[in-house]
Amino acid sequence: MSTKSREYFLLNELVAQANEALPADLTLTERTVRYYMQNGLVGKGLKISELPEEFSSKIVQRGNQRYFTLADCTTIVDIRTALEKGASIELLGGRRPQVNDDQYLSPVLYSRSFEMSEIVSDYISLPEVQEAWSLQLRSDLTLNGTGARPNVDTIRELQKFVNLNFAPEQTLQSSDEYDYDDEPTTGRVRIEIELVDIAAPFSGLLVNASNAEVTPGGGASGRIWEVCGVNELSPQRVNNKLPLKPGQVAFTTAGRGESRGFNGVIHAYGPRWTSPVDKEFLNKGKKQVPMNGEEQTLVRTWENILAMADEYGENRLAAPLISSGLFGYPFQDCAEVTFETLLETPTRVTHVHIRTVSRRSFDQLVEARNRVLRKLDIA
């Protein structure tokens, strides 16, 4: 929807509207408008709670963002025009900026080319927009908040506390009343094999084959960090209990990857294959013998991935074949264990897209999926 047809809009939209009304040599930036706010020339906008219900009810991402009106647009256009004509901040009714007299009286202060970093305080600014999140602790109880999302351990403790101290609002008496869609179902996840970049646009959660410290790695992991942004994801590591043990998972937002549709990233630390590899078995297509618990750890890894997706209310995942690369898990065995786990684990996840950029791996994944479907007698 065009901002011209709306009554309320965000700061970047306010600046864009103002620049449409100004001459080309009198452009505004968000930083300039914040400067006007700092000096009392224009208000800092309306909170969501201050907006009319018919507008606020349509806002999907509900954080602490501020909204502005066409009156605010007119105000900042008038301010910019007046300053260009020689008016001062004080003359326009604002507070005098904290600069020396020579700088204050200089016309350069208000020119388009002036670098305002020396006089505009980043401390005095609009609140940073925080991510809004919603967490379903139970079928009858949802927790909403903004800022850092609770980690997995915190969510589990919250669920224990809720179940211990709060009885459900309604006890379901019969199977006819029960909402089966809200419960995990046993298996039958739809597994899609894709010959595509791991970071290709996708609506759902992205799964990263991580190391124990949840830091950028090679291959698919490096690509995920590249697209989502090291600077965006690294600060969120403190929200997770690190280092991860084999089979454990951690969660971060998708950072810049949100522009590709990713709703978050599950970082999964899968097992390293340390058992002997029987080349005769490998040549005959027989399953290797995991002597150091690798198979159980891989199963646990995927169970934890699905559990975390359920906790975050997501039902679509895009993932590489975890542990099959640098971690050395024999490819066919890794694929079959992965697919069996996905199909037999109770979960609300409905679609898992296993991605690879190798044509050979793609063909092997399709064959492995078909073998597992036949083994489990799934059409």
Describe, in plain words, how this protein is organized in 3D.
The structure is a single chain. This protein has two domains: 3-118, Orthogonal Bundle (Multidrug-efflux Transporter Regulator, Chain: A, Domain 2), CATH 1.10.1660; 184-375, Leucine Aminopeptidase, subunit E, domain 1, CATH 3.40.220.10. Helix content is 33%, strand content 13%. It has helices at residues 11-21, 30-38, 53-56, 70-84, 101-105, 152-165, 219-228, 230-233, 279-283, 294-311, 331-344, 359-375, and strands at 132-138, 141-146, 185-186, 190-195, 204-209, 249-252, 262-268, 316-319, 346-347, 351-356. The relative contact order is 0.10. The strands form three sheets. It has a six-stranded mixed sheet, sandwiched between helices.
Short description:
The chain is of the alpha/beta class and 379 residues long. It has helices at 11-21, 30-38, 53-56, 70-84, 101-105, 152-165, 219-228, 230-233, 279-283, 294-311, 331-344, 359-375, and strands spanning 132-138, 141-146, 185-186, 190-195, 204-209, 249-252, 262-268, 316-319, 346-347, 351-356.
Descriptive labels:
379 residues, alpha/beta, Multidrug-efflux Transporter Regulator, Chain: A, Domain 2, Leucine Aminopeptidase, subunit E, domain 1, 2 domains, six-stranded mixed beta sheet, two-stranded antiparallel ribbon, 12 helices, 10 strands, 13% strand
